[in-house]
Amino acid sequence: MDNLDAAQNSVYEEEEQDVDPFHEEGMNLDTEDISEAGSSDIDRLNLDSDVADKARELRRRAPGVIFTSGRRDIARQARAMAGNVVVNRRWIEQTYRSTTAIRSLQQWVNSHPNADTVDEIARGLTDLMNAMPEAQRMGISKHLSGRAFDVKPNSCPTSAITALSPRQFLQREGGLVIWHVGF
Ligand SMILES: [Zn+2]
């Protein structure tokens, strides 16, 4: 690849997604139900420390806020994607903005037509994401690097979130109302 150095400078913006489709396809939110009251709920989000500070700031501004998701591991992200790919093999390219990471994930699917179970696809996507440079991986979802949390819609005013100056504040994804806050 040419111009790699130049590309590095803008890689975060180029790779950044403006979707967080993890929740769209019937994921069982109970598995990431971390919405119990108390200060430890923010600890359990396992966020980067400056992002955890933002979550605490949000709690101070809006004590009733309910956090529904924080850092996710690669295997979980891959499994969520695989669950969609198994029913639509073009789901990745149709859902995400085209970035280096997304193109390589879609290419893996295209070049493994015999991988037709969630387990096989998830394993392939996990291996691929593990091998990616951090900046590429982070562009797929800020949850992977602990730089995003999701908030139960209307559990706080939107103004309390925008006051945090997030890089991302997504309020609707694929018909589902999800509040995703990324830094
Ligand atoms: Zn999110």
Give a written overview of the molecule:
It is a single chain. With 183 residues, this protein is of the alpha+beta class. The chain folds into 2 domains: 33-72 and 142-183, no CATH class; 73-140, no CATH class. The protein is 46% helix and 8% strand. It is built from 10 helices and 4 strands, in the order ααααβαααααβαββ. A hairpin with an 8-residue loop joins β3 (168-170) and β4. α5 packs across α8 (118-131) and α7 (100-111) runs antiparallel to α8 (118-131). Residues 20, 69, 143, 148, 150, 180 line the site of zinc ion.
The ordered string of helix (H) and strand (E) elements is HHHHEHHHHHEHEE
Question: Helix proportion of residues, in percent?
Answer: 40-55%
DSSP summary, beta strand count = 4
Structural class: alpha+beta
Low-confidence stretches: 24-36
Characterize the overall form.
Answer: elongated
Present as ligands are:
zinc ion
Which value, in Å, is the CA radius of gyration?
17 Å
Strand order of the largest sheet: 1-2-4-3
Mean pLDDT: 85
Count, helices: 10
Write the layout of secondary structure elements.
Layout: H1 4-9, H2 11-15, H3 40-44, H4 49-61, E1 67-69, H5 74-85, H6 91-95, H7 100-111, H8 118-131, H9 134-140, E2 148-151, H10 158-162, E3 168-170, E4 179-182
Antiparallel strand pairs: 1-2, 2-4, 3-4
Helix pairs in contact: 5-8, 7-8
Bound molecules: zinc ion.
The site of zinc ion (ZN) has 6 residues, from strand 2.
